[in-house]
Amino acid sequence: VVEEEELLKRFDYQSWAKVPEELKILLERAIVDSKRFVALNPLGQIYLEGVDWDCSTIDDPAYKTEKSFEEKIRGSGGHAIKFREENWKIIEDIAKLPQVISVATTGSSEIESGNQYKVWIEGDHLRLSLSSKAGTGFFVIQTTVQNQKFLECVRKRIEKIIEERR
User: Fold this and answer.
1) Phi first, then psi: what are they for 141, rounded to 5°?
2) How many C-beta atoms lie closer than 10 Å to residue 38's C-beta?
3) How far is residue 146's CA from residue 124's CA, in Å, rounded to a whole number?
4) Alpha-carbon torsion (90, 92, 93, 97), positive or negative
5) What are the start-end ranges of the H helices in 39-166?
6) Mean pLDDT of all residues in 102-124
7) What pLDDT shows up at residue 77?
8) 87 φ/ψ angles, rounded to the nearest 5 degrees
């Protein structure tokens, strides 16, 4: 969902009448609180799901947050502090991804340790289980866009960061 004015400006259309018909058939317009909004209609949703996404599309400036990586890292105390210190570079690099809004530690375990990780999509966000010699940390990662294809692209980038840092 985007304000119509923003959509027109972003794609350099002078008015809704200038938007190509082949694009309009994928969109619906609505007025909310005196503002016009545009969203994908059911046909647009089906089209989006059927298209092979090039993950470079997530690098569009519209999908980036201006938050510093320090503002993005949140978490619980206790052993999680020790775990975050041990794995700081990985957590920092994930938080530096411009599409990431927050990296929140949700828990940790000193009992479970090793050198494995798992990144998965859960609803509208990503989850991360990351093990090291300091134990296992559990994270929720929020992104600027919550659709499955976008999350899949961010998931791949996080996996690459972890592989490079190990």
Assistant:
1) -120, 120
2) 22
3) 5
4) positive
5) 42-50, 69-72, 79-86, 88-95, 148-165
6) 89
7) 64
8) -115, 25
Which residues, other chains included, contact 139 with Cβ-Cβ below 8 Å and sequence gap of 6+? Answer: 91, 103, 104, 105, 106, 127, 128, 129, 130
Higher model confidence: residue 77 or residue 129? Answer: 129
Task: Classify burial at 94, counting beta carbons within 10 Å of its beta carbon; exposed 0-12, middle 13-18, buried 19 or more.
Answer: buried
* 107 in Cβ contact with 148 (< 8 Å): no
Read off the pLDDT band of 79 (50, 70, 90): low
Q: How far apart are CA 89 and CA 93, in angstroms?
A: 6
Q: Where are the alpha helices (DSSP H) in the chain?
A: 4-10, 21-24, 42-50, 69-72, 79-86, 88-95, 148-165
60-82: string of b/e by CB count within 10 Å (b at 16+)? eeebebeeebeebbebeeebbee
Burial class (CB in 10 A: 0-12, 13-18, 19+), 87: buried
State the DSSP code for 37: E
Token look-up 């294809």 returns 149
Locus of tokens 């350099």: 12
List pLDDT tens digits, range 98-110.
999 999 988 888 8
Amino acid at 51: V
